[in-house]
Write a structure and sequence with these properties.
The structure holds two protein chains of two kinds. In chain A, 36% of the residues lie in helices and 16% in strands. By secondary structure, chain A is α+β, with helices and mostly antiparallel strands. Among the domains of chain A are: 5-141, Beta Polymerase, domain 2 (2-Layer Sandwich), CATH 3.30.460; 286-462 and 487-502 and 529-595, Orthogonal Bundle (Cytochrome-c3 Hydrogenase, chain B). In chain B, helix 7 crosses helix 8. The chains are: A alpha+beta, B alpha+beta. The interface between A and B is large, with 73 and 77 residues. The structure holds iron/sulfur cluster (2 copies). One iron/sulfur cluster (SF4) is lined by residues 88-94, 105, 140, 142, 144-145 of chain B.
Chain lengths: 630, 294
């Protein structure tokens, strides 16, 4: 295993300190900059913003918290147990050798809203800080490219601030009073056609949008280049040009854009542009009750909705466990959860590899072979959860319902008999025969194919140090030889008792990521095989003792629940704050989206590559725009 | 040998290609004959080769738990005492638990006492907004709202067709039994019978069905009671008609002001829609002018 070990090795013991010891050590080292976060249900330290960079550097280099998992902002405005109004950045840092998080917070008042940027420490903070600037208006001093990332530059205000109200705004939180008992229906768009807050920043020149030259279009990326420039490479002349790829490009996996600066065919700079699918999922999530959010998480990475559910319920369950009335999930519920997320992982990787093959030019033949098994897995999801993709299956303290006796259908359609099989028989056959057969076939089909190898070996390289530094996650990180898998590093659910290995490949290129996905599917099958007997002997245990009534409340505090999803580390940062003992609506609901953060190193991986490889490199990261743009 | 991996891969393609015909031969081309149960061959767990379904000529059956836009359970239309009675008591739980808040319920009130009556006067679901999550069905304490299996709801006119009202949402108990036989039986066991919870309770108490204490009255009084019931119904109807006739929110009104006036845009006539459109355009122009000044 290749580890990123920065050179500072004079105090190796500091890298093994527990989180509590680390905090104590930090306090000794920076006596006036660090204070404990003493708010009810909170953990971690509050760092003085003057010293933030220094402390972060120390935490990373000396204490060994080399992986910045999530950096996000919270707006504390109004009453509650957070008496002063302020903005807060929350950083979750981990060691890539495993263990729990060291949480750092930096506070600033809402008016100046300025904090030092941590990009010099962790490059992974880049997009996340841009997001915090975009949505919260926190200015990061020293950020190399602080501009909006999800909203367009003509957007007025910072939408995640608590005092910002969206078009068709009704009430601060759901449920809305207008629905019952006097629920006379209206359509929001009939009530007000443009919404009531369509505003533009005062200095925006709308005329510019109508008639815009190429130079202006790319200026924002520091790429305002003269497209007629020629470069002389020892007698061979190349054009210098800027290519705008997307947002409506079939191989960007959705509406996604890349601005690419080319020297001939060689990429010299690449900037991803996203946000076309932005719907402010997090704002919706803060209007929602805790329960309401579960089906919304399905819509993030819509290929693996079960995994999305899992991360979210884990985060909220952590908070609920702070209170008195909380029943953890039964063993069977945990088994079913793991069963579902492992099946989802297989689905995800089948898609990922299949679409990556599309990007390499093997148009749809491989992907259609693979997704036959996906269809069957989705049949099972449909029979169990009620929907193929938008599963909405997990609940706080359990799952929606047990696996049905039979994959039954009563509708009098022609194919009744076919689908009316015993669910366990179906699962057994899938896990023991069909899925392994498909994976083997995939292996036989692609792994040794010279075309695949030629296209992918050595392309899209990222070193282990960079992968960690850029907060890459999932197959992207493990494909660079960093054996970091949350199921092992900070185990949750019943993973500790399951026998499986972390798939890891040292090469750091596209082919390595492919191999990681392939092996990960095999490991998933291994897990699934261990689940079958567990499913048998837990039969009859309850699984859906809902802890939460329709209006359930959650004790005050913060929590960060993270799972290893198909695309990487999916984390949910949930804050319950208010002036009561518990709340019905999340004060802060943040999604650490792997698809989003994994794009941070895209520019780096493409640099020096050829223009034809961009699509394949993007495909090898495996993004879903529903999650990237949120 | 260079290229051997690739050739091996091509054999996989070839195998798939051949397999897509193997079933044909194996089953004597029955796969494509229209009447036979050919699904078994194509979609069964043992199937090889071609796998797809010729929708809409063939449809894949949906499992029992499949969920699509909800419907309201009502008594069977040939029910002995209360044909077509709503099971919904307008408790409002589904409206509160609905994540995108697409359920709108008007609770009935007793016209004389003004007290709430456990029966919705109106019930709307905006199916464009419904995310088919199934929470309403999961949390309804009266088994009164259930997820449907009918997924073919597309229409050419979103504005007029996609807010489902009570008549459109209501389906007989019998229908629920037919689409979800096991689930319906489980629920019946929890309730203790096929009737609505409240109806059973009332029966155990020895008489009245919820909201209708009259039903238990002695036969001689029954006629009079019926009359009074009829009068009440009349009153409700009148009130409804009034609400219907109330002027639609006129376009000149400020946008956010017409909250709960009871007007239903999709029932508005063509003229009214036109008026609204015109007013909207006027507002747009006014705003644009204002922006221009600023
Ligand atoms: S939860 Fe059930 S009974 Fe209550 S209003 Fe909704 S449908 Fe009616
Ligand atoms: S299915 Fe979900 S979104 Fe649709 S009406 Fe029911 S609760 Fe609302």
């Amino acid at each position: 295993m290749v580890m990123a070990q920065p050179e500072v090795m004079d105090a190796p013991d500091l890298r093994t300190l527990s989180v509590a010891e680390s905090i104590a050590h930090l306090k000794e080292k920076f006596p006036d900059a660090i204070s404990n976060d003493t708010r009810e249900g909170y953990s971690g330290v509050i760092v003085d913003k003057q010293k933030l960079v220094e402390v972060a550097q120390y935490v990373k280099e000396t204490l060994g918290y080399d992986y910045l998992s999530s950096a996000t902002a919270v707006d504390y405005l109004g009453e509650g147990n957070h008496s002063t109004d302020h903005l807060e950045m929350v950083y979750h840092t981990y060691r890539t050798t495993g263990g729990t998080a060291l949480v750092m917070k930096a506070q600033t008042d809402r008016e100046t809203a300025e904090l030092p940027s941590l990009v010099p420490v962790w490059r992974g903070a880049d997009f996340q800080e841009r997001e915090a600037w975009d949505l919260y208006g926190i200015k990061f001093a020293g950020h190399p490219n602080l501009q909006r990332i999800l909203m367009w530059e003509g957007f007025h205000g910072h939408p995640m601030r608590k005092d910002w109200k969206e078009a068709y705004y009704e009430e601060e939180t759901k449920p809305f009073g207008s629905r019952w008992p006097g629920g006379h229906v209206h359509r929001a768009e009939e009530k007000t056609i443009f919404g009531s807050n369509v505003k533009y920043p005062a200095d925006l020149d709308l005329g510019r949008l109508a008639d815009i030259s190429d130079d202006q279009l790319y200026q924002g990326f520091g790429m305002g280049v003269d497209t007629h420039q020629m470069i002389d490479h020892n007698g061979m002349e190349t054009d210098l040009l800027v290519v705008n790829m997307g947002p409506h490009h079939p191989s960007t996996h959705g509406v996604f854009r890349m601005v690419i600066k080319l020297d001939g065919e060689t990429i010299t700079q690449l900037e991803p542009v996203m946000g076309y699918l932005h719907r402010n999922h997090e704002k919706i999530g803060e209007r929602n009750t805790y329960l309401h959010n579960i089906p919304f998480t399905d819509r993030l990475d819509y290929i693996s909705s079960m995994g999305n559910n899992h991360g979210y319920v884990l985060a909220v369950e952590k908070l609920m466990a702070l209170g008195k009335k909380y029943e953890p999930p039964t063993y069977r519920a945990e088994v079913i959860r793991v069963l579902m997320v492992e099946l989802t992982r297989i689905v995800n990787h089948l898609w990922a590899i299949g679409f990556w093959m599309n990007d390499l030019g093997a148009f749809f033949t491989p992907v259609l072979y693979f997704i036959q098994e996906r269809e069957r897995i989705l049949d099972f999801f449909e029979a169990t959860a009620g929907s193929r993709m938008m599963c909405n299956y997990m609940r706080f303290g359990g799952v929606f319902q047990d696996i049905p006796e039979r994959m039954h259908s009563a509708m009098n359609l022609i194919n009744d008999r076919v689908r009316d099989t015993d669910s366990m028989k179906f699962l057994t056959e899938m896990i023991n025969e069909r899925i392994p057969r498909t994976i083997d076939e995939l292996d036989e089909y692609l792994t040794n194919s010279e075309i695949v190898k030629t296209r992918s070996i050595g392309v899209g390289y990222i070193s282990p140090e960079n992968a960690i530094n850029y907060s890459a996650a999932g197959p992207l990180l493990r494909g660079s030889g960093v054996a970091y898998d949350i199921r092992k590093a900070e185990p949750y659910s019943i993973y500790p008792e399951l026998d499986f290995d972390v798939a890891v490949e040292p090469a750091g290129d596209m082919y390595a990521r492919y191999l990681v996905r392939l092996n990960e599917m095999r490991e998933s099958v291994r897990i699934l095989k261990q689940l079958l007997p567990r499913l048998e002997y837990t039969k009859g245990q309850p699984v859906s003792d809902n802890n939460m009534a329709y209006s359930g409340k959650v004790p005050l505090g913060e929590s960060y629940g993270r799972v290893e999803n198909g695309k990487g580390e999916l984390g949910y940062y949930v804050v319950s704050a208010g002036d009561k003992k518990s709340t019905a609506n999340a004060w802060r609901y943040h999604v650490r989206a792997p698809s989003f953060i994994n794009l941070t190193p895209l520019g780096l991986m493409c640099q020096g590559g050829k223009v034809a490889d961009i699509v394949a490199i993007l495909g090898s990261i495996d993004i879903v725009l529903g999650e990237t743009d949120r | 040998m260079n290229g051997s991996g690739f050739i091996k891969g091509m054999f996989v393609t070839l195998r798939h290609f051949v397999n897509s015909y193997v079933d044909d031969v194996r089953y004597g081309f029955r796969k494509f004959s229209p009447q036979v149960d050919n699904f078994e061959l194509r979609q069964g767990t043992q199937a090889e080769g071609v796998f797809t379904v010729q929708y809409p000529d063939e449809k894949v059956a949906v499992p029992e738990r499949f969920r699509f836009v909800p419907f309201l359970v009502v008594n069977n239309f040939d029910h002995a005492s209360d044909p077509g009675k709503d099971w919904c008591t307008s408790c409002g739980i589904c409206a509160k638990v609905c994540p995108p808040q697409c359920i709108w319920i008007v609770r009935s009130e007793d016209p004389t006492t003004g007290r709430p009556v456990p029966e919705p006067e109106a019930f709307f679901i905006d199916i464009d907004i419904c995310m088919n999550c199934g929470f309403c069905a999961e949390f309804c304490p009266f088994d009164a709202i259930k997820m449907d299996h009918d997924y073919e709801l597309a229409s050419f006119d979103r504005t007029n067709n996609h807010v489902f009202d009570k008549p459109k949402l209501s389906k007989e108990m019998r229908y629920w039994k037919s689409i979800a036989p096991t689930r319906a039986v489980e629920e019946m066991q929890v309730r203790g019978g096929w009737e609505h919870k409240d109806a059973q309770k009332a029966e155990r108490r020895g008489g009245a069905v919820r909201g209708k204490p009259e039903a238990a009255a002695p036969a001689t009084a029954a006629v009079a009671e019926d009359a009074s019931k009829e009068a009440k119904r009349e009153a409700v109807r009148a009130r409804k008609a009034e609400a219907e006739a109330a002027p639609a929110p006129v376009a000149e009104a400020t946008p956010a002001a017409d909250g709960g006036s009871g007007a239903k845009p999709w029932t508005a006539s063509h003229d009214e829609n036109e008026k609204r459109k015109a007013a909207a355009l006027a507002r747009k122009a006014a705003r644009a002018a204002k922006r221009g000044e600023g």
